[in-house]
Amino acid sequence: MKKYHQLLLLIISVISLSLFLIYRHEYNRLHYVLEVFNFFGQPCNISNLQQTENILSHHDWGPSPAWQEHESGYIYSAFLTRQNEAKALTLMSDEKFVPRNCYFWFEDKKKPVVGKFKFSKVMNDENVRLNLYFYICEMSNSDHVPYAVSFTYKMKKESDLKKIMLSNSFNHQVNINTTICISPSIYSKRRFVEFLSYHKLIGIDSFIFYNRDVPHRLVKIITNLSTRLGLQATFLPWNFPKSDSLITRITVENDCLLRTFGQSLYAVTLELNEYIVPSHVYSFNTLMKNTNTDLERMSLPVQRFCIANTETTKPISMVNTYVSDDYSYNIVRYIYKNNQRKEDISTYAVDKGYASIHKYVRCSVEPSKVHRDESILKFSTDLSRSTLFQLLLHNQI
Length: 397
Prior knowledge:
By secondary structure, the chain is α/β, with parallel strands linked by helices. The chain has helices spanning 2-40, 44-51, 189-201, 216-229, 246-260, 284-289, 316-319, 380-385, 387-393; strands spanning 68-70, 73-82, 85-92, 101-105, 113-125, 130-138, 148-152, 164-168, 176-182, 206-211, 232-237, 264-270, 274-278, 297-306, 322-324, 332-337, 347-349, 355-361, 370-372.
């Protein structure tokens, strides 16, 4: 009789546990849906956000840049790095036509002030036969701050000088911990949502997208939701005049560092399919606190994951965990401590066992050797529950 009693208790326990698991699963599903509705109130609010003619305020990163044809080259952006010095990011094919003259424009003066011109080469890209330069304009100390700068190869009339609006890149207070700048890459709404949701999850809430093809509808939704989501998302135009290349990434990285200087403690440039993954901790801030913070730059190794599973109900990063063992692939991404200007930068190389960049790509040829890396799976539940991912899953965004 005692045996039957124990068997009955065991059966009741198994049934109770099964019912509990079923209840928990259904509760979580309902919880996710209710969380989304709770967040936005009524479903029609999403369409209101994309149709509204108003866009909420966002962090001011300076004048909106754009590639402008300038004599024999192209200028993207210009920054006031000191009160008497400006730097402009420029692409040129022939160094012979680098400008010889530069001018500063002030709001209280009709005529520009002549500056001293110099330049420095950042890099060259043989694929597009373009060189990336810093055009530098300096002047004697001034009590006033210029709002624009001009460069020219030959002397011109003042009315013919092309003004490049200046972003102030000095005299700021650090009020953002980390900013991710996103280099232009192949757009996918799923990639976009998962990238934003994941990095917000690990504690990064400031993003600058160099936008080439993110739909304006989605830009409006994310911008108007940014306060509720607890993040800052800025979209800068990217009308690069040539085909994509390494020079795109280097240009974006330099613009990012100058644009965020003194405002964001750390800055890093990534693509939409690249994720910062700490192996043993849950937040980016903890990762940085545990590393050598005296150095100006950290390098994180990039690991390539071939996308084999495209299940739509789960994030891509959570269902593709096999990384290629290609030892010739030695790409790194740099995290900059962006509050000091130095010519010689000290770099701390992070071991991939501690943290790495997970890059998810479609492989035309399967790698010969792979191993499993599940370090990102600790974020699986929270990422699947994230508001933006749930909106995507339920076709609300």
